[in-house]
Amino acid sequence: MIPVLLEDADVLAVDKPAGVVVIPARDEAPGESLRHRLEAERGEKLWVVHRIDRDTTGVVLFARNAEAHRALSLAFEHRRVEKTYLALTRGAPTPREGVIDVALHSARKGKMRPIFPGERDGVEAATAVRVLQEWKRPEGDVALVEAKPRTGRQHQVRVHLRYAGAPLLVDPLYSRTEQAAVGGVTLTRLSLHAHALAVTLGERVLRVEAPLAADLRAAVDALDAAARA
Fold first, then answer.
1. Is 53 labeled as catalytic in the residue annotation?
2. Does position 47 have pLDDT exceeding 80, yes or no?
3. How far apart are the C-alpha atoms of 188 and 192, rounded to whole Å?
4. Res 26 pLDDT > 90
5. Model pTM?
6. What is the reported pLDDT for 28?
7. Closest listed residue to residue 35, CA positions, set 68, 153, 49
8. Which residues contact 16 (CB under 8 A, 6 or more apart)?
9. Distance of CA 70 to CAs 48, 77, 79, 189, 192, Å?
10. Over residues 209-226, mean pLDDT
11. Other CB atoms within 10 Å distance of the CB of residue 9
């Protein structure tokens, strides 16, 4: 069963596990997607409002009727949404707290990259970052970073953190890391978690939060234990 974080007459928010796509991926059975699994579990039609990457865990919001879908889609389109991600990174970003305001450009193989000097056809992208915790280690420092994208570009948090000198601890696409051992815990998926979402709908603000995923929490606890030893 997919954990439910919030449910009312209009909205369903769930805590997406790693390894699951929100909508059917190409060449995959539709029934494997998050939407179809939830519809099968609950016996109801759901409308997709937004997506997160396959191996990112955390908050995903669905509408339970067409009217709610229109309202939520407009809120996302007009940036009346605040997203908060938590990431384990290799080293701490520069700045440790501030806004990474760097336009992005599409690249090969479905990737994004920062624009080159003089390029004019990139898309604006800004991410507020804050280092929450940092562990100094002989084999390489690790940081727990809060990232709040102010725009909604593909792979924005991943690309901006890499640009700021702190790529995700595990990111096969952007840092060619399939896994990472930290404090005795081995992470084998993207070290990124969609922690919270706040959506303004008229006079109502809908807030949802998903606790740090178990594998990332285990890594943080192991890093803390190693630091105390």
1. yes
2. yes
3. 12
4. no
5. 0.95
6. 77
7. 49
8. 2, 22, 34, 52, 56, 57, 58, 59, 60, 194
9. 11, 10, 14, 33, 28
10. 97
11. 7
Spot the catalytic one: 53, 55, 101, 221: 53
Contacts of 26 (CB under 8 A, 6+ apart): none
**Structure tokens belonging to residue 220:** 């943080």
Q: Is the pLDDT assigned to residue 212 strictly greater than 80?
A: yes
- The pLDDT tens digits for 64-95 are 999 999 999 999 999 999 999 999 999 999 99
pLDDT, tens digit, for every residue of 106-145? 999 889 999 998 888 899 999 999 999 999 999 999 999 9
Parallel, antiparallel, or unpaired: how do β-strands 57-63 and 192-201 relate? parallel
What is the enclosing helix (H) or strand (E) of 12?
Answer: strand 11-16
Which single residue is written with the structure tokens 């995959």? 28
Element (H, E) at 113: strand 112-114
The DSSP 8-state label assigned to residue 63 in this structure reads E
CA distance 202 to 62: 18
Cα 181 to Cα 32, 74, 133, 198, 212, distances in angstroms: 29, 41, 18, 33, 18
